[in-house]
From TrEMBL:
Single GO cellular component term: membrane
Top-level taxon of the source organism: Bacteria
Subcellular location: Membrane
GO biological process, one term: phosphate ion transmembrane transport
Bilayer topology annotation: Multi-pass membrane protein
Main location: membrane
One Gene Ontology MF term: phosphate transmembrane transporter activity
Transmembrane annotation, as ranges: 47-67, 79-102, 108-126, 138-164, 220-242, 304-327
Protein name as it appears in the record: Inorganic phosphate transporter
Amino acid sequence: MDLLAAGWLLIFLIGVALAFDFLNGLHDAANSIATVVSTRVLSPRVAVAWAAFFNFIAFLFFGLHVANTVGKGIISADIVSDAVIFGALGGAISWNVITWIAGIPSSSSHALIGGLLGAGLAKAGFEGVVWSGVLKTVAGIVVSPTLGFVLALVLVFAISWLFVRATPAFADSTFRKLQLVSAAMFSLGHGGNDAQKTMGIIAVLLYSHGQLGAEFHVPFWVVITCQAALGLGTLFGGWRIVHTMGSKITRLSPQQGFCAETGGAITIFLATHIGVPISTTHTITGAIVGVGASRRMSAVRWNVASRIVWAWVVTLPASGLIAALFYGAARLADRAF
């Protein structure tokens, strides 16, 4: 494969895709580290390094089912063009920057899906949409936080029963150690699901340029580059969102942080295995709400949670609209030059 021979535009778009991947890590670092930082098990600097490492090595543990879904299961690979990819990435990046500045934990994943849909619809209308993949992704918006909520809630009750005779000091010491494991698990899940979305974008871009031959697949250099970009973005952290996720929704102890991260990790592992591009933001938020509700419903700051939910609802149409505008601008630029 000779990217230079394929053209500078292809190289530029791959660079934009990797920039989105980096921003995804920056934006979603909070998902991996918010609980472990808020419980003071790790300092922020150590926590982001811990998360970045496990984000990077996630390709060793998961197949590429999510990459295949994003690459050919949201919009048809036949309608993909440089302008479509530019529009999708422009919409996703713009929405990520807006929500990052506002400190709102919206979904980078669904910003990208919305971007693909917006640019795809702008080019080919509804005929270019792969509805089975879209419906699977939309279902994940509801299922992933719900499953994270339920699993975290069940874990809290199970662990409370198991440690009912333990002293508070013993329980705190035990779960401070266990939270290192749960944070690693969640970071693995994040790296396994989220990096694959950018892999799918780059792979379908290469496919549209005839760089993959007759069969769609994800080259290994794409896998390792996307994992590295996501891990590097995580190293820079997203401190505004860490504050929202780690302390504004509910207060967490090490035991509750372990339950939230473990419940979220199990949810992401399942989704990645079956190829559903879910939102790690939605998942960990549902899990955090679950552990808060295990104490009492009033322990959850529902006004903050409701603001997050509204961001979820708005993400797909907002990123899609911005993507359609970017697609239109790319088409105008193409005609002008």
